[in-house]
């Protein structure tokens, strides 16, 4: 009997070693960034069986067999739709700035989507202004209203949007609503889904969360896009979820969320429509590819806002927005102003910002003073010392949870959309960003950023170095997990 238990022990140890070795080899074989690989290896070795199990659930970009297969089959028809955009007069790469040309080149090679001219962009930086304009556009809709959000939280003006959608559906307008299952869980528990469906609105939850699904798909992949398309002619995107900030997350102690949205008319709207169609088809297997943009034939017509629509997410080409951010920083000559609620950059982005400051580019990063994620807050602080030493200016916004995701380069061109400066947005979530090569629009965004700076406190390097040993220890601990946040 003793020999039996001895053999059982040896077999158990061998099996344990085999599992740990196998998972470790798999982590290394994926050839991801060194930081991500080391973070996972640390978790696997510190919490051996739990770490290995966590890696199998959350360690790889597993979209699920059905979704992955649909995405693969969709590349050809959607690719053909995007190829037609190159034939239009609005495809004017030669009128773009050098910055715009380089960004477009990356996007054309990575996702096959060109930048298009003849758009008209309006920047909306007040929540109730955004909701009022959105309701007005919904009330004027004739054919279709398409919405896609990470969070829809019932209450206040968000309910007014829901009522406007129901009234439009009664008028015969086709309404399709796609919401992330986790982010919009309060919406799906409310009266609204049933009420909307009773009036003919198609309501779909994306990326359902359940214990059963964790064995087939990574559960923390989220649909983080914010898109509205009305009649294929009016579009919205930006950082704002479908919420009334007076009714949303009031117990978090971070203040009201501060956001911006971009209202668009022109040929880039059907491109946003196609991204909504992609997400809808991945989730439902129903195809609603939109009509192509209307082609303007007058060669001498004015060229207005040049817009590059940049989608990213599982099933699409990897790292496109990460590469665009890096290229934007590399090209900066005078100034970089960044606003983001969650600042946990990749090693490459962190180093690019340090180098930019060292070559005398003024770098300003505006983040919330209070954050709704404790882990992100402490991990973010771990980057401050090196940034401050290099001359980067870090500002803590006091007016609420600054949720705007924007980058302004040299006061001349900008990026604006749904992407946070963290690994989740850059590699895991479904996101969308606009690269805008237009001076007038960029100046408006810069004025909004300056308003944030006026309500922010600059982090002093001298005071920062006086922080406690406990704070430094917490920063280092959470920094180890920063590649996974």
From TrEMBL:
Q: Does the keyword Repeat apply?
A: yes
Q: Which residues cross the membrane?
A: 6-29, 36-58
Which molecular function GO terms apply here? cardiolipin synthase activity
One GO BP annotation is: cardiolipin biosynthetic process
Q: Which InterPro entries match?
A: Cardiolipin_synthase (IPR022924), CL_synthase_A (IPR030840), CLS_N (IPR027379), PLD-like_dom (IPR025202), PLipase_D/transphosphatidylase (IPR001736)
**Matching SUPFAM superfamilies:** Phospholipase D/nuclease
**Single GO cellular component annotation?**
plasma membrane
| Keyword Lipoprotein among record annotations | no
Keyword line = Cell membrane, Lipid biosynthesis, Lipid metabolism, Membrane, Phospholipid biosynthesis, Phospholipid metabolism, Repeat, Transferase, Transmembrane, Transmembrane helix
The family database entries (Gene3D superfamilies) matched by this protein are listed as: Endonuclease Chain A
Q: What class of enzyme is it?
A: transferase
Which branch of life, at top level?
Bacteria
Catalytic activity line of the entry: 2 a 1,2-diacyl-sn-glycero-3-phospho-(1'-sn-glycerol) = a cardiolipin + glycerol
Membrane-topology annotation of the record: Multi-pass membrane protein
HAMAP family, per database record:
Cardiolipin_synth_ClsA (MF_00190)
Family of the protein in this entry? Belongs to the phospholipase D family. Cardiolipin synthase subfamily. ClsA sub-subfamily.
The protein depicted here goes by the name Cardiolipin synthase A
Species assigned in the record? Shewanella pneumatophori
